[in-house]
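dumping this here before i forget
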Amino acid sequence: MAREVLDKYRELNLLYNVSAKLEADLDVLEVAGLVIDQASKLITANRGALILLNQTTGLLETIATFGEGYDRNTTLKPGEGIVGSIFTSGQAEIVNHVSSDPRFIPPRHPVSSLICAPLKTKEGTIGAVVMSSEVPVEYTAADLKLFTALASQAGPAIERAILYKTLEEKVKQRTKQLHQRALQLETLYQVGQALSMTLDLDEVLNLILEHLARIVPYDRAAIFLEHQGNLEVAAARGFPDQVEIGQLRIAVREDALFNQVFQQQQPLAIADVVEWPGWQNFENLPLARSWLGLPLVRLTQVIGMLSLVRVTPSPFGEDELTLAATFAGQAAIALQNARLYDKITRFSHELEEMVRERTIALQEAYDKLDRLDRTKTDFINIASHELRTPVTVLKGYSQMLLKDPAIQANDAHYEQIGQIYQGTLRLHEIVDSMLDVAKIDSRALRLYPEPLSMTGLLELLVARLSPTLAERKLKVVIEDLTALPPLEADQDALRKVFYHLLTNAIKYTPDSGQITISGRCLTGEPDSLEIIIADTGIGIDPQFHELIFAKFYQTGELALHSTGKTKFKGAGPGLGLAIVRGIVEAHNGRVWVESQGYDEQSYPGSQFHVVLPLTRPAAKAAVALPTSVAMV
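structure:
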């Protein structure tokens, strides 16, 4: 009796220890090994095995053994043999004489007796544990009860270990996926950075293909850009050396898959192009098997396509598709920016070339005009000197003839000689003007400043022009200029300035009009005075305010040039205002005109402003005068 109690205690203690160990262990193989090891201590046997159902294959596989006779990785169908039958029935059994059991299948090693119990969980039977003996053993019901108790503990423990292993594998797989995803996102970020750092089109194209290979592996890839109804290869990677990339073109037919990518603006993946009807394969290229087409879309417009090829059947996965599509979005932006930059660069180069050519043409035209201007200046200089002597002779002889009593006695002859004399005076004045212009252009005009009263100078000029003013019924008003201080200036030069300004006002003011002369002091650096000659004439169009100071500029018709220098709208050689500006600027002064416009009905008038410094100017030659291109 004491012996039985002791054995019972030992068995219970063993089961308790086994239970504690099974609860702590989560490795399937270790749990299975522990179960077999403890079973060998509970049951008299010289071999044993633990088998589990493989959910994938549906077979019973041996994962742990005891002794010799059972091999790991051997398989058994459910219901096959004694063990397979017990697994299917879910009932533990003792078979003390296996050879007489009809289910018995002779193994490689002799077996006389066995005891087998299924491994059960809440979900069902997941396997079985079996112990056997080569020599006959009479297993008892007590043995079966003890063995079943062990199996009942082993089933849930193995299930937990399987679940843990499954969860662990899932965690590892998910961790790997997350790590891979993080690397891919980092790569995408680096790609975006790299693409944004260059605007060179060729470099961008090559960077796209280079970085794409780090995200989505491929055997060869190409970037196609649409041009005149065809897809042309702009960049390629992984192509054989003998293939001329620039010659590769694909017609975008309505039924072509490339057109499908363009129209739907969505990626298109083909697991095996062999099964795709109408697939176009380039000559001299290894046959494509798996293919991925990615549209390059920018602002709803497809600007190109990425073509990825694998030469073995290896379909592009969903993750690869998502990453590639994201990359294509970045690539499209970089590509569009690079194309715009390339277009701007080419336009800039073309514009630079046009500007260069235009600059050369303008320089040639300027040189030509400069030569013409110098030629005119030389002609004026020569002509004025050549004309001066004969004009002086004509003037002298005509003046002598006017004093001849015989001429004075003949009214007709006297009038004719008088007209000759007036003509020579006019011609002499023109020659003097030509000489003044020649001096200004050649910077040979010399000034001899002396104290000068503007009041006296202007009054003398008005008195000189009084016959003309009376003939034209023009009124000249000289406002009070007594407050104007004297200035240091060349008297003869300024006399010419205001003579030309007054005769200009007379010419463009209608009969019975008015000319007003006013002045004021200006303070500044340096102190100056301003003389204003205003008329009630026809005015000057604002677009000609600067042009009228160019030599030879004329607003009148050629037929009017012989009508006299003071007749209304009578024209001259176009030198007067040019001389005015040249002399004024030689005095370090300024001259300009103000007028609301040209109108022969309302007569808006003009105001010529002359500003001269009060102090004696430093020695300065007159600046060369521009030549009008509108001389008539």
